[in-house]
Specification:
Blueprint: E1 7-9, H1 16-27, E2 30-32, H2 41-49, H3 52-64, H4 70-82
Parallel strand pairs: 1-2
């Protein structure tokens, strides 16, 4: 994840959003809240805000899911393909 920001995600069920959210959550960088439980999301965010240790762990996990510089490399490939 480019910013290594811990996340509370509410993905659309049975879509790529859910697949992507699950991957990040399994790595430890996010929590998933099901759409039918969306009212729980603010509670999860508030709990995280007061748990610096857990935020740090989630940030490290999120940082580890994508190689450093991946976004820049993807942008460079897209610019080259577009002839920019």
């Amino acid at each position: 994840m480019a910013t290594a920001t811990p996340s509370v995600l509410v993905p659309l069920a049975a879509t790529h959003q859910e697949d992507n959210a699950r991957q990040l959550a399994e790595a430890g960088g996010a929590l998933i809240v099901a759409q039918e439980e969306v009212d729980r999301a603010p509670v999860e965010v508030q709990q995280l805000l007061f748990d610096g240790r857990r935020l740090g762990e989630m940030s490290e996990a999120a940082a580890g899911i994508a190689p450093r510089g991946a976004a820049e490399r993807v942008a460079a490939v897209l610019k080259e393909a577009a002839g920019v």
